[in-house]
Amino acid sequence: MALYLVQHGQSIPKDVDAARPLSEEGRETVARIAGVAAGYNVHVSRIRHSGKTRAQQTAEIMASQINPAGGIAAMAGLDPLDDVAEVAGGIYGNEDLMLVGISPPWRGSFRI
Q1: Looking at the 3D structure of the chain, how many domains does it have?
Q2: Which of 32, 49, 52, 93 has the highest local Cβ count within 10 Å?
Q3: pTM confidence score
Q4: In a domain? residue 51
């Protein structure tokens, strides 16, 4: 099992758009990193994101390059103050998974 923890790309300021979507630079950076991941043959079963616009956009860009069979979807527990035990319950030892969230990434610790 491989677990990839990805922080969303750079977003635009809250005072410009409260949803804080990715900036053009953020999109370009994520696309570049997704291309590198694909070049390294990174394969994941699923990509899960926090549900925030910027995390979803990051997940979509990553998915466009690495094509996860299980697609992408929002997942509870990926916000900075969430209990990571929620995430642990959605991780299975026989699959590779990418989790996309916001900063700071997942506080605390958990056992799988």
Answers
A1: 1
A2: 49
A3: 0.87
A4: yes
